[in-house]
Amino acid sequence: MTNWTDRDPRAWARENLTGVSGVTIPTFSADLATLNERAIAHDIDLSARLGFDWTLLVSEVSITPEEYGRFTAVAREAANHRIGLVAHAGFGTLADNIRGCQLAAANGADLVLLSYPSQFWPTSEQEIYEYTREFCDSVDLPVMLFAIPLWGFERVHPLGMSVELIGRMLDTIPNVVAIKSEQGYPLIGGILEMYHHFRDRVIISCPIESDCLPLMLVLDLQFSGTSNTQWMSDYYPKAFAAARAGRWEDAMAEHWRVNPARQANIAATTAYIGGTQVINRTLWKYQDWLAGFNGGPLRAPAMRVPDRAMQMLRAGLVASGLPVTDSPDSDFMRGRNPG
Predict the structure, then answer these.
(1) CATH code, 170
(2) In a domain, 1, yes or no
(3) What is the C-alpha separation between 300 and 279, in angstroms, rounded?
């Protein structure tokens, strides 16, 4: 990535925040005591070889800020300038988010995705603004806002993060360079609202691939992420690039080809997220393992993946003609690079 520190961060984003971003979940040693650095390097290398332009380094697992700094350093070395790194402000407190992302910045992260802790319970837009402002002022990275119903901000405004709140943030926080827009998910009102008001100011990301490709017929979207599309191998980087190049019909042909995998993912996700409002990172890691990524254990508390979901996800890849491992599911927790 081109260094942004000596230039306007939004101009940097306009030039560099392009293509698609998957996710990389850290892998731990078999005894869960340390990071499995060989496995992390394997996953970063595979993401780059599949054509992903960016990857999110997930912190919304049981990992310390200091371990997260090391996770970033390992990813930076493995990336070898082939793929951009998105830090993840997904820790449990504002202080830990600042510390973790400061360490990520020092170890080679290019951008940060701002999430909000589960115990952050604002009752006014001012509280949301103050949290966001303090984080952005404390971290020397461009920031992508993340607007999604997971935070519960709908108690403050039906849009969660309203047009007025986003506008105020853009007016007063110069290192906000993008909006990952999922307001009103699973409907598309949020992305269209953000695109209408702010597309000339910052990058608008539609991270949901099933929405993004169809919308690219009418919206000029240069970036899509972050989401776990890497489990469908190189489908999404290629389809997104085709749509960007004006070959929308080609992109949509691929969109429909992988629909069995997409539907399996929707079914597996719907089975848990409605009641928990928490992403099952173990399920995401299993999906990645099916496609050749490392797999391996996560620290507690980690959600489980039932056999029926594994069978459904594997069958979706097979039906879509996408790469899928022949290894038995019993190999998933051991991982491809056990350590």
Answers:
(1) 3.20.20.70
(2) no
(3) 14
**What span, in angstroms and rounded, lies between the C-alpha atoms of 332 and 335?**
5
More confident call, 275 vs 220: 220
Residue 2 domain-assigned (yes or no): no
DSSP label of 52: -
* Cβ contact 178:204 at 8 Å: yes
Residue 111 pLDDT level (bands cut at 50, 70, 90): very high
Closest alpha carbon to 54 in 16, 4, 98: 16
pLDDT for position 55: 98
Inter-CA distances, 296 with 33, 36, 44, 181, Å? 13, 9, 15, 31
Phi and psi at residue 102, to the nearest 5°: -65, -45
The range of the structural domain enclosing residue 41 comes to 9-331
Q: What is the mean pLDDT of the chain?
A: 96
List the alpha helices (DSSP H) in 205-258: 209-215, 235-244, 248-257
The two tokens of residue 58 are: 């997930």
Residue carrying structure tokens 């202080």: 95
Output the pLDDT for position 151: 96
